[in-house]
TrEMBL record:
Keywords: Disulfide bond, Glycoprotein, Hydrolase, Signal. Belongs to the palmitoyl-protein thioesterase family. Its EC number is 3.1.2.22. This is Palmitoyl-protein thioesterase 1. The keyword Glycoprotein applies. One of its GO terms (biological process) is receptor-mediated endocytosis. One of its GO terms (cellular component) is lysosome. One of its GO terms (molecular function) is palmitoyl-(protein) hydrolase activity. It catalyses: S-hexadecanoyl-L-cysteinyl-[protein] + H2O = L-cysteinyl-[protein] + hexadecanoate + H(+). The keyword Disulfide bond applies.
Length: 343
């Protein structure tokens, strides 16, 4: 057979295979449909080298299966929690693994649950972000990219990861009860005694911006005093930086823009995060602690210091709300509101 006839027939059947891939793929039984239909077509081909078509067929099957795979999910816990408590993120991990059937990695800081728990209070976020960047970049199962979910303070830590860790490809970032503009008050502290919580509150009220507190207590690094904005901007060692309030880091803007969706969930009856509108990137108007301004009224948005205005114009920002207390949601709510960003 001439090379012209062979290439002509091969091209015809190449288009046939592509057509079958498009019209006959059953997502629940992809391999069976493709094998039963396309192998029959290949066997009945005339004037075409069967083995070449089989080779091309296998290549196409591999490509379709890889491209249709769901993305892994990375979780980052909040204050007073760990990667793996069965009643919190351990349960969320199993829920996602069973419902979506993907690889789920819940971030653990340190070499034990105890170290991970302490990290939520005592390991500076900058150090944590560096550690996680290195860890996730070395995970072969995340090489193709992943979706990420942050819980409480894990939300702003994950956003910092997006902005700083250029080696990772994060598709959708979901933040649940995050403190994107910081906090000014700790009405309740999860997982610690009321006496310890009160001590934290006093320390933050009077010494949040000292070098000692900025390097000692995680919550001091995202303490945002609206009565003293200049002190916050110059002394904050984490939040003011990732919000581009000290100077505009163009890498932060560029990397955040790479997100497909930035989903922020606000819990409308939150008794821990103050003010609760920080979960949607809102905050107190400067100079007082009563009146709230939404994201679009803030200088971060108006001056587009972080690229959020551009992302909003591109419909990349999603605001969701849940009628519960801090991080209190049902599986049904999670399925209905968040699964579409994870598949």
């Amino acid at each position: 057979m001439s090379s012209y006839l062979f290439m002509r027939d091969f091209k015809i059947h190449e288009n046939l295979i592509k057509s079958k891939l498009i019209t006959n793929v059953d997502k629940t039984n992809t391999k069976f449909i493709l094998v039963s239909q396309l192998m029959f077509d290949c066997i009945n081909m005339q004037h075409t080298r069967f083995e070449v078509v089989i080779f091309y067929f296998i290549a196409l099957i591999t490509k379709v299966q890889v491209s249709s795979e769901k993305l892994p999910i990375v979780l980052w816990h909040g204050m007073g929690d760990t990667c793996c408590f069965p009643f919190s993120l351990g349960g969320v991990t199993k829920f996602l693994e069973s419902e979506i059937n993907v690889y789920v990695k819940s971030i653990e800081i340190g070499n034990s649950i105890t170290e991970d728990f302490k990290s939520g209070y005592l390991i500076h976020p900058n150090q944590q972000v560096n550690m996680v960047c290195e860890d996730l970049s070395a995970d072969a199962q995340l090489k193709g990219g992943f979706n990420a979910i942050g819980f409480s303070q894990g939300s702003q830590f994950l956003r910092a990861l997006v902005q700083r860790c250029s080696t990772l490809r994060i598709h959708n970032l979901i933040t649940l009860g995050g403190q994107h503009q910081g906090v000014f008050g700790l009405p309740n502290c999860p997982s610690i005694s009321s006496r310890t919580c009160e001590r934290f509150r006093l320390l933050l009220n009077y010494a949040a911006y000292t070098d000692l507190m900025q390097n000692f207590l995680v919550q001091a690094t995202y303490w945002h005093d609206p009565l003293n904005e200049s002190k916050y901007r110059t002394s904050s060692t984490f939040l003011a930086d990732i919000n581009n309030e000290q100077f505009i880091n163009k890498t932060y803007v560029k990397n955040l823009q790479k997100l497909n969706k930035f989903v922020m969930v606000q819990f409308n009856n939150d008794s821990i995060v103050q003010p609760l509108q920080t979960q949607w990137f809102g905050y107190y108007k400067p100079g007082q602690d009563k009146e709230i301004q939404g994201l679009k009224e803030t200088n971060i948005y108006i001056e587009d210091r972080l690229g959020l205005k551009k992302m909003d114009d591109q419909n990349k920002i999603v605001f969701l709300e849940c009628e519960g207390n801090h991080l209190q949601f049902t599986k049904e709510w999670f399925r209905e509101n968040l699964f579409s960003f994870l598949k």
